[in-house]
């Protein structure tokens, strides 16, 4: 995979349309989703997607983890605390739930969002889930979202760990090229990391100012 000869300028953050589809996510998750969308669009452009396809990716990518918030799932889950096997089964069911929630529409946005939700936990080496897809059998949309989700998640502060510094997150991403992630997509992210990080910071600034990126 190669980028265009003259890379397009990175897009200006734009509002996401309509209300967020997941039930009452906290502000950190909302901000993460906004960043995921913009980073996926920008990286897609660098990989040669046309602007319309990249914009659709921006709108679909924030729904990547909607399977975690399926309100019907709780009635089928065992009581907490989960065993390690139950926790693994629950995590591996989430992509299918997300795809099912989104897959009832033929609108291109939701078709793409369902594709991402189903496949973004697959791994380049075939050791992901839910279907163990390998290499370029994983849809390009999901391969892009997996990379930007990984980087952005590392640089977020979590309850169980502090945020990683950008340079450390980039090094960790590079270590996963060819195993978890498409090495061409990782290479494109690393090559354009300063611009992508600047875009992320602009999206955060818009969020902090009370807007929706």
From TrEMBL:
Skewed-composition ranges (Pro residues): 8-22
Pfam families xrefs: HD_5
Start and end residues of each stretch annotated as Disordered: 1-27
Name recorded for this polypeptide: Two-component system response regulator
SMART domains the record matches: HDc (SM00471)
Ranges where the HD-GYP domain occurs: 7-205
InterPro entries documented for this protein: Cyclic_di-GMP/3'3'-cGAMP_PDE, HD/PDEase_dom, HD_GYP_dom
Source organism phylogeny: Bacteria, Pseudomonadati, Pseudomonadota, Betaproteobacteria, Burkholderiales
Highest taxon of the lineage: Bacteria
